[in-house]
Write a structure and sequence with these properties.
35% strand, Rossmann fold, Pnp Oxidase, Chain A, 2 domains, alpha+beta, 657 residues, Ferredoxin-NADP reductase
């Protein structure tokens, strides 16, 4: 079968920079069919919705999610006529910029009007791409479209990152909320940005203009699906002259390494996007200027990312109730979705910026010893190759295990989908407090850090660490230590150079391994109080909720090995929820009750309740610090609201990096 596709310089550039194997580069033309395969024809004919893109008379791509089914109009649908001809009758809103672009004259009279699309079946994650030219097009006033599409590029795609959902036709009354189709804009309104924030699905349209027809490379368009956990597309703004420019950032998830979409962007920055909000029927259409950022440039904008696309918005249309589809099921996110990654400026605003050490020498961390705190919680003590200025107690360290664990690229991994985008970097709370220097009135630099990690069922790094600790110690295997950061701490620096201070009354609420930031906070308080007698005066109540023998971690706070300094007091309330007849849970509870009950520890074999917080003395005068599972922190926030504890006194760990 004759092939027409030939990779252009943008695709080849990215394939080279990103080390695409030559076998894939050479094989790409053979994956793209000139004629529509029969299975693709059957697939498209059965679709109820179809993302399609074209260009307006300024050459800007606009893409829409067209609805190709309707309960009350049998004419709406898709019919494949012959090998490469497809008739599409679809319903959209009259405000749809794709429909409005069809009503404009092409940029150059007599030229073919290009199109591209990607068929997606959200019920089973199947998708196929196609592209070509529009033979005929008509747009009725109500938004009904009639298209004849002549396709000459057909490519099957993998199902990764597609959200499974069930959609049925639903006639809505569209309302235009924002419109800059005919004017240039660089700002998005708040309700448009909210659509982006909620999206787990976006479609991206690109184009390539062949300047040398003799090269065999054709002018064409492309449409691709981008998916991830809600929020995977980040939004930020910058001052732009007298106005504001809005940027969208799409991290590149591991794909087939063809780089067709990103290759187009290398040669032509104009792109189009559509963000359908399936929950409420709103649709956001965007056009803009894109650029690909690689390696250090990508990392600077979005840490832990080596390839992303940044799009400066130049036009947008937001249509409320513009999608004639209704969601009738829960959405099932793809198991291949990596965690949402945040922009550096977002991390800075949340206090989670990474502080790297001065100098060019990389720092490594070598596991020296461990301590078992419970069956599933272990403290790992690392020696660093160079001393570091540790953050205030409660901060974090970033460990990179990629040099010892990364096995290279894999396209699919049904047994463990998360490995496809795994970077083997972990950020853990530093559970040890640095020593405090009375003379300099600051925490000292040091070359030892500890992290306390709970084994997570199915988790990669927690199981690697727990299962291979002895091997890592014996073989002295170093891992890269990328830096540290702060953000969740009860300490505040003194503006005049004095010792750091803490609130005079505190309530610490912790659940499970969320106890870890409180471990260095407590140790740090004792070290400062001993080094600078009389400086600190604080009364702390620690409320801890743990399962089974996890309550054993409270020994860290009730240990009799070091006397509590004058002016510092700590009372611990621990609540154990145990599995039925769990022997280790009962024995742990009994042992703690017998040996530590007179040392400021109260134990209960039940769940934490609102009355337990209500009974904390001087509750409304305390600064409250919360860390643990989201469910616990949500419950704590609700309980504290009912108990009239001011929001300004609540500090919730929002650790997301």
């Amino acid at each position: 079968m004759a092939q027409i596709h030939k990779s252009h310089k943008g695709e080849l550039l990215l394939q080279e920079r990103l080390n695409t194997p030559q076998l894939i580069v050479d094989g790409l033309p053979h994956f793209i069919d000139r004629d529509m395969p029969p299975q693709h024809a059957d697939f498209f004919a059965g679709l109820s919705y179809l993302p399609l893109a074209t260009l307006d008379n300024q050459g800007r791509p606009w893409i829409s999610l067209l609805v190709t089914t309707a309960d009350n109009d049998p004419s709406i649908g898709i019919k494949v006529e012959g090998k490469n001809t497809m008739d599409v009758v679809a319903q959209t809103s009259p405000f749809d910029p794709f429909a409005r672009a069809l009503q404009q004259q092409p940029t150059s009279p007599g030229e073919e009007r290009l199109f591209a699309g990607v068929g997606v079946d959200f019920s089973n994650r199947r998708r196929n791409k196609l592209a070509g030219s529009i033979g005929t097009a008509s747009v009725e006033q109500a938004g009904k479209l009639r298209l004849r599409l002549n396709s000459d590029q057909h490519l099957g795609n993998c199902p990764k990152y597609i959200t499974v959902r069930t959609l049925v036709p639903a006639q809505r009354k569209a309302e235009l909320s924002y419109d800059s189709f005919d004017t240039s804009t660089s700002a998005l309104p708040a309700d448009a940005k909210a659509v982006v924030d909620r999206a787990s699905t976006v479609f991206l349209a690109t184009k390539h203009s062949a300047k040398d027809k003799a090269s065999g490379v054709q002018t064409d368009m492309g449409v691709n699906h981008r998916g991830g956990a809600p929020g995977f597309t980040r939004v930020y703004e910058e001052e732009d002259g007298d106005g504001v420019a809005t940027y969208l950032v799409l991290p590149d998830h591991s794909g087939n390494r063809f780089y067709q979409t990103l290759g187009n962007i290398e040669t032509d920055p104009q792109v189009g996007l559509v963000f359908p909000d399936f929950a409420n029927g709103h649709v956001l259409y965007v056009t803009g200027e894109a650029e690909n950022l690689l390696n250090a440039d990508a990392e600077a904008l979005m840490p832990r990312t080596n390839l992303l696309t940044r799009i400066k918005v130049t036009g947008a249309v937001l249509v409320n109730n513009g999608l004639n589809l209704r969601l009738t099921s829960e959405e099932q996110l793809s198991p291949y979705n990596p965690p949402v990654k945040y922009l550096q400026q977002e991390l800075d605003e949340m206090g989670h910026a990474i502080a790297t050490q001065d100098g060019l020498t990389a720092i490594t961390a070598t596991l020296a010893s461990t301590q078992d705190l419970s069956e599933s919680i272990k403290t790992f003590n690392f020696e660093l190759s160079s001393p570091i200025d540790a953050p205030m107690p409660g901060g974090f360290g970033v460990f990179d295990f990629s040099k010892i664990l990364d096995t290279g690229y894999s396209h699919m991994n049904e047994a463990n989908p998360k490995l496809v985008n795994e970077d083997y970097v972990r950020t853990w709370t530093i559970s040890s407090a640095p020593d405090f220097d009375a003379e300099s009135r600051s925490f000292r630099a040091g070359n030892r850090v500890s992290v306390t990690v709970k084994r997570k069922p199915g988790g990669l790094m927690s199981n690697v660490m727990h299962d291979n600790a002895d091997k890592l110690i014996a073989q002295k295997i170093p891992v890269d230590f990328k830096g540290t950061g702060a953000g969740f701490t009860c300490f505040s620096p003194d503006s005049e150079g004095g010792p750091p201070a803490v609130p005079t009354r505190m309530l610490w609420v912790a659940g499970g391994v969320g106890i870890t930031p409180f471990m260095p906070m407590w140790d740090g308080i004792k070290k400062v109080a001993i080094a600078v007698p009389g400086h600190l005066s604080t009364d702390i109540v620690l409320v801890f909720a743990g399962r089974d023998d996890d309550i054993n971690v409270v020994r860290h706070f009730i240990s009799q090995s070091s006397a509590i300094p004058s002016g510092v007091s700590l009372n611990v309330l621990a609540f154990q929820s145990a599995r039925e007849q769990a022997e280790n849970s009962l024995s742990t509870f009994d042992d703690l009750s017998q040996n530590l009950s007179d040392g400021g520890l109260t134990l209960e074999q039940r769940r934490l309740q609102i009355d337990d917080l209500r009974n904390v003395a001087d509750l409304q005068d305390r600064e409250v610090f919360m860390c643990g599972p989201d469910s616990l922190m949500d419950w704590s926030d609700e309980a504290l609201t009912k108990l009239k504890v001011a929001e300004t006194r609540r500090h919730r760990e929002s650790f997301i990096f």
